[in-house]
Design brief:
Radius of gyration of chain A: 21 Å
Shape of chain A: globular
Radius of gyration of chain B: 18 Å
Oligomer: heterodimer
CATH superfamily of chain B: P-loop containing nucleotide triphosphate hydrolases
Helix content of chain A: 10-25%
Structural class of chain B: alpha/beta
CATH class of chain B: Alpha Beta
Order of helices and strands of chain B: EEEHEEHEEHHEHEHEEEHH
Distance between the termini of chain A: 61 Å
Largest sheet of chain B: 6 strands, mixed
Distance between the termini of chain B: 34 Å
CATH topology of chain B: Rossmann fold
Order of helices and strands of chain A: HHHEEEHHHEEEEEEEEEEEEEEEEEHHHH
Number of helices of chain A: 10
Largest interface: A-B, 27 and 33 residues
Helix content of chain B: 25-40%
Strand content of chain A: 35-45%
Largest sheet of chain A: 11 strands, mixed
Chain lengths: ~425, ~250
Amino acid sequence: MSAALRPDTDRPRSAAMRSFEAQWLAHSADPLHEWRGRSMDRFLALGLPSSREDSWGYTNLRGFAARSFVENPSVIATRSANGAAAAGIEGLQVASLRQMARENPGVIAPHLMHASDVDMQRWALLNAALFTDGLYIKVSARVTTPLVLVHSSTGSAENGVCYPRVIIEAAPGCSATIIERHESGVPHTALCNSVTQISLAADAQIEHYRVFNTHDEASHIDTLEIRQHRASRCKQFTVIEGGGLVRTNLEVHLQQPGAEFEGYALLVGHEARHVDCANIVRHDAPNTRSGQTARAIASGTSRVVFNSNVVVASGAPHAQSQQSSRGLLLSPTAEIDTRPQLEIHTDEVKCVHGATTGRLDPNMLFYLLSRGIDRATAQSLLVYAFLDDVLTGMSSGDTRAAIEAALIAQMPDGEVLREFR
Amino acid sequence: MLKIVNLSARVAGKTILNGIDLIVNAGEVHAIMGPNGSGKSTLAQVLAGRQDYEVTGGEVSFENQDLLALAPEERARAGLFLGFQYPVEIPGVNNVYLLKAALNAKRKAAGEPEVDAYEFLALIKQKMKFMDMSESFLTRGVNEGFSGGEKKRNEILQMLVLEPKLAILDETDSGLDIDALKIVAKGINSLRDPKRAIILVTHYQRLLDYITPDRVHVLSGGRILKSGDKSLALELENRGYDWVQAGLVA
């Protein structure tokens, strides 16, 4: 009997937990079975996160617990940003994770062992146990053409769940831009539990985007783990502009001196959407730098949560970190919660953070109105201006244009904004 | 063009305007002077339609329309322009796009077609040259990182492009050095026209060395205490506002 089958407590498992366990039992063994089994054991022992836990304080998963999930397949379409086949991009190896797991499990297995912060990574454990396929991407040159990954679910089962996984490794001195877009046209897929892991070797550079533009009723839990070696640089954008419930986790490990991480979050609460973005950046080596810039807007009855935590370890003197989080409330029934945190275990660090939430500046609004601009247009313009700090950081023009188009569709009188961009 | 009858207004529950009467005809330049806190800026903001300023009484007609019934953007499109005392910075909204959108909003309201993009650029470059502004203003956010003087010049630039029927310039002269003051005055004078009117709200007489007003009014305690021709401004400069206020008591 596998350890996974032993209940950890006497209390009865929820329907959701029973269904995850049933999925595990239905999986056929592959060369990664041992690692997957450990992940499943741990997940079952921990159970679903409760809102009593610190990092899940704002997102209640009780609605999930009563549901019996069935596995839905998902696919990841790849292409280069200029529309050509991904296979044509020189310096990029894009392989099926299923195939790699069979033929070269030694490459994949180390990635399944991480999950260092259990509190945040619980869903990553479940993904490690149950992912059936995904992509393994090796960057072995300075790649200039961005790679686009489009995730979508293809299943039609009620209460469907899918587990896409992407593993990206950048070799020393190599660089690439990788854009993951999550799109679900299929309303049946109730939950997507995705994981992406990025490792940057010395001097590597990655610009990574994860863009969530899913169905209004879809729930999405995404975990992104980034490990950075000496003098590597990672620029990361998290853009949530769709979905019913979207929870993103980000865990960055600056493991060697000189590693730099720059993270941006653009979080759009619209209608009844629930957005919860939880970041943790760990400075584990000297002279590491991180920056986090979050801009959240909330309209309707939406709720947007942004929690960022920076942990500077005792062995990481001269670390520098900056956190800037700003929220803009567009309706009296919307809510934004933002909480920057710092945990410093050494001296000689330079860490700053700031967080504000407010409404549109009445002085700015009046200025635009006094120039004859329509109220709706003026409001949309100011919202756009508010998001500018994140949008202008994007090096990929195509990606930025696609993100803007989706934003415009959700804004009052947004059409007029096209003229302004 | 503009007729204000017994206008009263309050801000945050406090009465600031206390029965203003004023008539401004086309072709005229009026200067409204007065000590700090007399209600000069409040009057300018109320005329432009600022919504947190509550009108408690009186009437204002502009070109035979009930001005107070119009939203701020409608007032602008009808030809009213407010030059702000403290123009706000709006990073992320391009200075020139705003101006183009403002011009098009006005043209649309007048039933005219939108301005051609190339013609607009040529127009704005010409006006910027006239106002001695660098072309870097074209690519910057609205007033973003502008010095006090640059902000005021930008207000006048907007006025020149929008060609309002009535321009209300709220302390456009404050914070300007003498060279900037001359350029701003040149811009304002260039708009003088028998079909237009200008209201200069100012604390000091020095702007009036460059722009000769037809009428000068002294505002104090939310009322116009005294009106006269340009010599009133000189007298105020010599004798101070206390003289007018004391005169009322006596």
